[in-house]
Amino acid sequence: MCTKWSFCLQSLIATVFNLRSVSKQICSFGLYCVCQGRCAEDLYKGIQSSDSGVRCDSLKLLADVSTDITFAQEFISRDGHSLLVKIVEDAHESVFSLAPLIMTHTLSAFMELMDHGIVSWENLSSVFIKKIASFVNAKVLDTSIQQVSLAILESMVLSSSSLFNEVKQEITLERLISHLQVTNQQLQTKAMALLMAMLLAGGEADRQNIIHSSSSVGDEMAHYLYVLQTVRLNHLEARMRTPLDSYNQEQRDMLHGLRQAAFEMESESGLSNERRRSLCAKEFKKLGFSNNSNPGLDLSRCPPGLLALDTMAYFASRYPDAYSRFVLENSSREDKHECPFARSSIQLTLILCEILRIGEPPSETGSDYHPIFFAQDRLLEELFCICIQLLNKTWKEMRATQEDFDKVAHRSVSKAPITNFTEYVTVTVALISLHHMHFLAVFASRELKERLKPELLELIRQQRLNRLCHGTLFRKISSRRRQDKLWYCRLSPNHKVLHYGDVEEQTETPSIEALQEKIPVADIKNVVTGKDCPHMKENKGKQTKEVLDLAFSITYDVEEYSLNFIASSRTDFCLWTDGLSVLLGKEMSSESMHSELEILLSMEIKLRLLDLENVPIPDTAPPIPKPPSNFNFCYDFSQAEQ
Nearest to residue 412, comparing CAs of 426, 394, 429? Predict the structure, then answer.
């Protein structure tokens, strides 16, 4: 009976489709619709059959013919889709183990019917949604059922926000990730599609909740989130590797849109072609394009290609006030201190592409995903908008010039460790709404410190040499540890000779001529400290730690002779050992030098970060005013205490 009915039904279906293929030539459209109605009625009866074989064949044929819009209308008009919904809602676990094909064909037919848009997704009941979700959440179930269930949930999520909220309550990220771990590629694809749909349909808070729906993210889950992140970012690769086409009207409009958004546009209709070209070139130059007469040439380098144009256009449209302020602020600066917007944007986009590894295939072991990525539809563009404003601020704080541009940009990419910079970027994006300025302020301070350090080290070196030229009074310690002799040592003004000699107790700074002994700096071989000093070795075990910490010696004449010192304080010890290191062409290493360098760097950075734009600074210090005629205006604290 089953075989006979199936044969008859298949013959009917074949007839209908043959009619459809020749309906324009032989049959009228009315006859075609009648045949489709007959087919829909027969299938409706077959689905209700008590014979499981007939039901299975009917549902399979229904899934095949439901792609036809005319048949779908006929079947739905007979309330056929409601019958399919009831089959799903009434399903129980035994059905899946005994006849999984029935449910697979039911869901496939339902999906085909819904794709025509005749029935709204919002008409579905919560019972149906929960049942479909249970198919996805089941740990042991036929993969064909799960594939179609995932596709149905994806369509629900994309159709309305209310259905998205219901699906979100039933499906967890952890379960979707488990479907990504199977070997069935079709199941992986459907799971990925549903995950993407949920991320796209949800708001920022929803995306964060989806990512953090599990109490902890395991290694496998982190890997798949990393893969998802990489795949989405790599969608930008095509734009990154495509240069601007000067003959593409859309791209030309985007380019001219940057100019129009930055400057007040005068009517160009009355201008000659020559005048119009001159005006455009002038404005593109203000925007920071190197080739102001043909700015498209600046965007011919790939990467970043058109991606740089996309980020600039996004910044100009998303944050028009900040964009205008950037351009106009730099237009009012001196030429050498202008921060070129276009040039900076192209370089910054390139750096961000490298940091986010756009264009690189996902690693098999990678797990470095950023949760904030899933809360931003336009992560690259938003990150660019933050960084370009902070770049302008940093440029102003560092008083950078055009000559510094390549050096600073190169150091940002090649010398700064990409892993560390990525960590900074992660922190920056994660705190977009709170204090996203912190990252580049730290990064700018680091860059500024590196630029200032050589200058300040030279300042410390000169101070050390000046201190040696002034000289210092030292005490000699005899074998009986009596501190009864004094001697003085100082460096000659030309830094070539050390002069020293014995002096009396009350002697002020002696002249070089009064110091009879001398050692040419060229003869000095080394400077040793502490227990390595010859005079400490002679009295090994007899000197206190305090004396050892203050002892240093100069060795000369092939290290056979030495001049031994014991400083009166740690400060003198640091000054002399640093100064002698400078004379020998070595690096200073005392704790005093490091402390002073940090103090100077901190002071200099604070001065550099002062907002002194357009504030005239005189070349010479202003004169100190004369003291007042009396100090009667001073407050007498003694009276307050009484």
Answer: 394
Q: Is 199 helix (H, G, I), strand (E, B) or coil?
A: helix
30 pLDDT tier (thresholds 50, 70, 90): very low
What residue has token string 């009484």? 642
Integer Rg of the chain from CA: 41
pLDDT tens digits for range 265-288: 655 556 667 777 788 888 888 888
> Which of 374, 427, 434 is closest to 212 using CA atoms?
374
Contact 303, 348 (CB under 8 A): no
End-to-end CA distance of the chain: 120
Apex 67 CA angle, 66 and 71, nearest 5:
50
Distance CA 86, CA 48 (A): 11
Cβ-contact 292, 281 below 8 angstroms: yes
pLDDT at position 628: 83
Residues 6 or more apart whose Cβ sits within 8 Å of residue 411: 447, 450
Distances in whole angstroms, Cα of residue 445 to Cα of each of 345, 361, 382, 459: 21, 34, 23, 20
The full DSSP string for 345-359 is HHHHHHHHHHHTTTT
Contact by Cβ (8 Å): 439, 428: yes
Calpha distance 311→378 (Å, rounded): 10
Q: Determine if residue 359 is left, alpha or beta; phi over 0 gives left, psi from -120 to 50 gives alpha, anything else beta.
A: left
Q: What is the DSSP string of 519-585?
A: EEGGGEEEEEEGGGSHHHHHTTTTS-HHHHHHEEEEEETTTTEEEEEE-SSHHHHHHHHHHHHHHTT
Of residues 53 and 34, the one with the higher pLDDT is 53
Average pLDDT over every residue of 72-77:
83
**By C-alpha distance, which of 265, 308, 266 is closest to 288?**
308
Q: Quote the DSSP letter at residue 623.
A: P
Q: How far apart are CA 341 and CA 109, in angstroms?
A: 56
Which of 146, 77, 71, 62 is CA-nearest to residue 109?
62
Core vs surface per residue 456-476: b (16+ CB within 10 A) or e: bbeebbeebbebbeebbbbee
Q: Look at residues 186, 229, 185, 227 and name the one whose alpha carbon lies nearest to residue 207.
A: 229
Mean pLDDT across the chain:
75
Angle at which helix 418-430 crosses helix 379-398, to 10 degrees, equals 110
Residue 26: pLDDT over 50: no
Query: 66 with 109: CB under 8 angstroms?
Result: yes
CB 327 within 8 A of CB 388: no
pLDDT of 400 reads: 66
Tell me the pTM. 0.43
DSSP three-state, residue 465 = helix
- Sheet containing 524-529: which strands, arranged edge to edge? 524-529, 551-556, 561-566
With 0-12 / 13-18 / 19 or more C-beta atoms within 10 angstroms meaning exposed / middle / buried, residue 257 is: middle
Q: How far, in Å, CA of 578 to CA of 460, rounded?
A: 9
**The pLDDT of residue 204:** 53
Three-point CA angle 167, 173, 179, nearest 5°: 100
Q: Collect all residues with Cβ–Cβ distance below 8 Å to 141 and sequence separation of at least 6.
A: 96, 135
Q: Tokens 């009667």, residue?
A: 632
How far apart CA 541 and CA 408 sit, in angstroms, is 54
Distances (CA, A) of 411 to 39, 422, 443: 73, 15, 12
Angstrom distance (rounded) from CA 313 to CA 342:
11
Which SS3 state, helix, strand or coil, does residue 518 take? strand
